[in-house]
């Protein structure tokens, strides 16, 4: 996922913060990120569907998403958000609509990877637990 | 007796932390230790009754017990009787009153550890010393409207051994701090009225309602809270914003995402903040035999920590406070054949 540019080194930082005492930290953050992102994307879709787009609201949401993707290391999503904000500033509806689609696409891509990763991890964890017993 | 054992264990860890921090130059004679007796009570309930020095650790025999005990009983925690003919040795060895067989190996273990840790990164030990020692490790209040960022900063802070409280808004933060709009004449000692005591506030800049900057101004404008150091975080690198915050009284400005290495920059501010808040300057006014840039330490009953010239020296011990000059270099004492109890 790193090689593909989906995740950057911030994600590694997160992984480093996880230790024996906080085994579920990364999973928790990833899950929170996904929930949060979906909420934001839903809101953004609604806002962009309006006849007259309220760009300041849109921008506020994109800003949030950019922040959380940056905190989690979701590089492509973050970059897509930055693009999106550009179009917002220009009040460019078409650009915004396209940008939103890019963000969604990147997010979905990332989410499916995360899901695989978390599944793998829990399988590994279960395996390790079995080993210890 | 379970309770006693726990206290003993706590005391051990305390002494270990203390020694490791102070044991800068090693010790090679009994006299070195003897001069720095300070009697004090460990919060864990031990009573300091004298020195116990392992016969294994030092080449010569220990000083006679009577001398130890009598000198102990005369001492008060903050007093020190320096030997005018020598600079005060760097070491302070308080101990617990324990059965004698226990004592020797315990102190030996602590002395060994102090020596060994000398050679390692001191930081690590300071961490241990700080959190284990102080009944209340430094408490940071983190403010951020983003749940993910709150989780992250909480984990970062906890990993750095801080106690953390997170809130989602500036107004909640002020509530927790016990901020009152009309405060004007509160003394600048501890803001610890009915609310929690906080040693540092770290806040996001962009928040709905009250921004991090607004929060900063409120804190700095409050007589009871103004000494709490405030750090601002932002995902945006806007120089004017940064300078505005710093001018407004923020100690630091972190760019998000915040990393572990950034948190190291918190320490000097948190130490300074503590000593300001408590209004105490324990070590500073002892210029002549106090060489502060070494292993000097300050006594701490869990919430006093004087910052020294070198902010990376964290002292979280009880029982000592002065006159520990690191100026002397001594050969390192190495003993690697001691049993750890």
TrEMBL record, chain A:
PROSITE patterns: HPT. The keyword Cytoplasm applies. Its main location: cytoplasm. GO terms for molecular function: histidine phosphotransfer kinase activity; protein histidine kinase binding. It is found in: Cytoplasm, Cytosol; Nucleus. One of its GO terms (cellular component) is cytosol. GO terms for biological process: cytokinin-activated signaling pathway; phosphorelay signal transduction system; positive regulation of cytokinin-activated signaling pathway. CDD domains: HPT. The modification Phosphohistidine is found at residue 63. Keywords: Cytokinin signaling pathway, Cytoplasm, Nucleus, Phosphoprotein, Two-component regulatory system. Residues 22-127 form the HPt domain. PANTHER family: HISTIDINE-CONTAINING PHOSPHOTRANSFER PROTEIN 2, PHOSPHORELAY INTERMEDIATE PROTEIN YPD1. Functions as a two-component phosphorelay mediators between cytokinin sensor histidine kinases and response regulators (B-type ARRs). Plays an important role in propagating cytokinin signal transduction through the multistep His-to-Asp phosphorelay. Functions as a positive regulator of the cytokinin signaling pathway. May play a regulatory role in salt and drought tolerance during plant development. Histidine-containing phosphotransfer domain (HPt) contains an active histidine that mediates the phosphotransfer. This is Histidine-containing phosphotransfer protein.
UniProtKB/TrEMBL annotation, chain B:
InterPro entries: ARR-like (IPR045279), CheY-like_superfamily (IPR011006), Sig_transdc_resp-reg_receiver (IPR001789). Residues 276-311 have a biased composition (Low complexity). Pfam families: Response_reg. Gene3D superfamilies: 3.40.50.2300. GO terms for biological process: cytokinin-activated signaling pathway; phosphorelay signal transduction system. The modification 4-aspartylphosphate is found at residue 204. Belongs to the ARR family. Type-A subfamily. Functions as a response regulator involved in His-to-Asp phosphorelay signal transduction system. Phosphorylation of the Asp residue in the receiver domain activates the ability of the protein to promote the transcription of target genes. Type-A response regulators seem to act as negative regulators of the cytokinin signaling. This is Two-component response regulator ORR9-like isoform X2. It comes from Phoenix dactylifera. The lineage of its organism: Eukaryota, Viridiplantae, Streptophyta, Embryophyta, Tracheophyta. The gene is LOC103713843.
């Amino acid at each position: 996922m790193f090689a593909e540019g989906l995740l950057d080194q911030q994600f590694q930082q997160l992984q480093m913060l996880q230790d024996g005492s906080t085994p579920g930290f990364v999973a928790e953050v990833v899950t929170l990120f996904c929930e949060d992102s979906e909420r934001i994307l839903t809101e953004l879709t609604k806002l962009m569907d309006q006849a007259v787009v309220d760009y300041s609201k849109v921008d506020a949401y994109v800003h949030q998403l950019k922040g959380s993707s940056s905190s989690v290391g979701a590089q492509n999503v973050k970059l897509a958000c930055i693009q999106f904000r550009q179009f917002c500033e220009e009040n460019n509806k078409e650009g915004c609509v396209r940008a939103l689609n890019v963000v969604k696409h990147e997010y979905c891509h990332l989410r499916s990877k995360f899901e695989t990763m978390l599944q793998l991890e829990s399988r590994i964890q279960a395996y390790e637990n079995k080993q210890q017993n | 007796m379970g309770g006693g054992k726990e206290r003993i264990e706590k005391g051990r860890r305390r002494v270990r932390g203390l020694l490791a921090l102070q044991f800068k130059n090693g010790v090679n004679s009994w006299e070195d230790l003897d001069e720095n007796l300070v009697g004090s009570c460990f919060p864990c309930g031990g009573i300091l009754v004298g020195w116990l020095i392992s016969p294994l650790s030092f080449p010569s025999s220990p000083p006679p017990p009577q001398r130890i005990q009598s000198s102990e009983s005369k001492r008060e925690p903050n007093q020190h009787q320096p030997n005018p003919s020598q600079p005060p040795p760097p070491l302070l060895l308080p101990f617990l009153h324990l059965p004698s067989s226990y004592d020797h190996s315990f102190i030996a273990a602590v002395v060994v550890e102090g020596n060994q840790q000398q050679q390692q990164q001191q930081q690590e030990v300071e961490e241990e010393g700080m959190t284990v020692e102080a009944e209340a490790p430094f408490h940071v209040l983190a403010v951020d409207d983003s749940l993910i960022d709150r989780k992250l900063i909480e984990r970062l802070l906890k990993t750095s051994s801080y106690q953390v409280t997170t809130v989602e808004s500036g107004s909640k933060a002020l509530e927790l701090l016990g901020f009152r709009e009309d405060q004007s004449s509160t003394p600048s000692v501890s803001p610890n009225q009915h609310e929690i005591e906080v040693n540092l506030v770290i806040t996001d800049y962009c928040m709905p309602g009250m921004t991090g900057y607004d929060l900063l101004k409120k804190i700095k404008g409050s007589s009871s809270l103004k000494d709490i150091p405030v750090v601002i975080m932002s995902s945006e690198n806007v120089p004017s914003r940064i300078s505005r915050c710093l001018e407004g009284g923020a100690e630091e400005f972190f760019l998000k995402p915040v990393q572990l290495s950034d948190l190291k920059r918190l320490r000097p501010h948190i130490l300074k903040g503590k000593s300001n808040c408590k209004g105490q300057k324990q070590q500073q006014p002892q210029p002549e035999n106090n060489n502060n840039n070494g292993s000097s330490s300050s006594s701490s009953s869990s919430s006093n920590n004087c910052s020294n010239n070198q902010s990376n020296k964290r002292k979280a011990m009880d029982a000592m406070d002065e006159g520990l000059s690191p100026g002397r270099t001594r050969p390192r004492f190495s003993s690697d054949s001691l049993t750890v109890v």
